[in-house]
Specification:
861 residues, hydrolase, aminopeptidase activity, Neutral Protease, domain 2, 22% strand, 40% helix, binds zinc ion, binds O-methyl-L-tyrosine, Immunoglobulin-like, single chain, disordered N terminus, 27 helices, metal-binding
Amino acid sequence: MADGQISPRKAINLADYTPPVFLVDEVALDFTLDPAATIVRATLNLRRQAPGPLALDGRDLELLSIKLNGEALGGNRYVLTESSLTLDDVPDVFTLETEVKIIPETNTELSGLYMSGTGFFTQCEPEGFRKITFFPDRPDVMARYKVTLRADQSKYPVLLSNGNNTASGAAGTQIWATWEDPHPKPSYLFALVAADLVAVKDSFTTASGREVALGIWVAAGDETRCGHAMYALKNAMKWDEDTFGLEYDLDIFNIAAVSDFNAGAMENKGLNIFNTAYVLASPATATDADFQGVERVIAHEYFHNWTGDRVTCRDWFQLSLKEGLTVFRDQEYMADQFSAAVKRISDVRSLRATQFRDDAGPLAHPVRPASYLEINNFYTTTIYEKGAEVVRMYRTLIGREAFRKGMDIYIAENDNSAATVEDFFAAMQAATAIDLKQIMRWYEQAGTPEVSFDESHDPAAQTYTLTLRQHTAPTPGQPVKQPFMIPVAMGLLDATGRDIHTETLILAQPEQSFTFHNISEPPTPSLFRNFSAPVKLQGQSRQRLAFLAAKDTDLFNRWDAMQQYATLVLLDAVKAHQAGQAFALDAGLLEAVTATLRDAARDPAFAAEALLLPAETLLADAMSIVDPDAIRFVREAARKALGETLREDFFAAYAQFAAVAASDVSGHAIASRALKNAALGYLSAAGDTTLAGAQFLSGENMTDTLAALVNVAELADERRDDAFASFYDQWRANALVLDKWFSVQARAGAPDTLARVQALTKHKDFDLRNPNRVRALIGAFAANPSKFHEASGAGYQLLADTIFTLDETNPQIAARLTTAMGSWRRYDTARQSLMKAQLERILAKEKLSPNTYEMASKALA
Ligand code: 0A1
Ligand code: ZN
């Protein structure tokens, strides 16, 4: 460890949990808001639960005064450290008043109270509240809040907090507003906004007839891009009533949009705070994927009102209790809006690309980790997306009806309290006769199980026996794994592709056999239908995959068979390329793509997914030593060969699906554009770039413009440079669109991408203080396998340089970027040592944050 480095935090362990010594029944907060010196007065009504001192969390707070039951305390009555305020000698029930000064304008971490644009915003999850006032900043302390905000009226005319606005007024140039939240909540759900914003307003009448006032607060001029967010909010409110019987519980629901935000959005009670990227959308500025992102995140945060706010988490180890469940709920919501199969396909595609990769590397952790250094590092795809898969497995195992019953029990038993994963388990177990005990292993053990199978058919007995085996490789700290409880939704297909049997098997042992009767011919099994468990199924032959891709009645498995088939042939092509052989297109792949394309009109959204070849990162995951250049070469060669061979079909599909209005964002229009742009991609790969150029010029719809630009970006000549120049001129004033301008350049496969990204880090619009911009350029570049892993190591250097600087202002984002080098051991020795050197350089930095320390040290361990 370098001299001067702050000592990394000590690990927090689940096993060490103890209940709070004091509860807070009520808290009154009074803010006098000033960018350079905000004064926070807090009055806490405390009640003892256990023997011991009162220990409050607090960071970066200047304590101005402290009173106990109205009496000022001298410095001998408390101990103040960098992160806490402790009072030894206190009664069992008392009132504590503190007054602190904080400096929002220097808060670049974007946690606690900070400035963005010209206004004040907060982000308290998970541990930001302690940067606002002294408090037991842990989710199992739930209090009722009364909040008064005071600010300069000319600069901050809008004052918002949680709950209901019970009083407001003006005093000279200052205005003030009081907000009261009747529901007890943990400190991480506190929020305030004081800014110059305008509202788009609407209302929603709940199933029981209460009227809820809805407001979406944005910067003046952005009101025209809030329509989709408002639609999504009302739609989600209705869906949660219809699907889970859950009604909104306040008279007002506000959303405020902020352009500097570390994450996507935050579920603060009655006052969600959103990254502008998940609020603002119009067909001219946002892609279809952006529209869906807005809808998904609006729904997600709204659903947290019950799964997160009313029922919260006992401690941060239980994070997936609210996140896995709420992701499951938003996935179900989205599946109900468009095609359920296509939604499942895109969710699984991203689960495999991110979560499976993390689960196979040094940063792997269970859905409920046992230990952490910095909880901010645990907002991961494992907690969120794998957590959602675990919830889905409960439902697959016990059925929809029992699952709904279990949800009712979970809410009823845990309302207004801080729950654990065991509480969720108990509710589900109470709703079914199936013994679910073993499902808990999904929370405890990291890693992706690998499932293989054997089969035998006995024509005399007319039986078919399927033997399934599971194995999970070691992960950090977990050398030996116990078997998981794995629901295997399956079907047996006859030679014509008809289902002769369907069932959900439960694989709970390392190896289990299942015998099926009255099976006269050897059937083809279709396993893990609709991706019934987050596992890797191994050992399917190409012939099988080709059959399932053409015939399976399960749409998900049809897509998956085609993906697995494509993966096998592309990996073979990588080997051939490494051996110096020329690329040859596999006949089966050509046949499958041809069939998909010719049948596209039947379900264009599905066809658009099925036409996409497995991503470079997915191919990389299947190689023992990743060769990013060979992968890129082969994948592009395949796209080119398919584009050339099927040129007429792709042109025809392009023309057939082109006729949708630029402003149409219906499911049909989105699917048509997706198919058309998939065709455009193949045609461009085959060298027909005129079409992309023309589409770029005519674009009135951001989906089409961007799809065209992505193809033009591959050309390293003036056509590309002109396109980026004109896009910049048109959109320089729109931050979210400018983010796209950065990220398309960073994702490009053109030979000069690295140099361009290096230059873009010096661009006047590049800003390390804005997380969206950092993700758009640096995050996107680190996800561009062949460019980031350029053999010289210059890509690693660029990333590490960014992390180095960023760690000083925003450690959360710096730590997240560090994960891009987490899989360094999977590369050749030259790249390994280049990445390792950068990780070591980061680790040796003076005053490295605990956030980045945890990620870099675990990556190297
Ligand atoms: N609970 C939010 C995610 C979130 C987490 C951390 C944040 O700041 C550090 C912000 C938001 C969600 O699941 O949407
Ligand atoms: Zn969430």
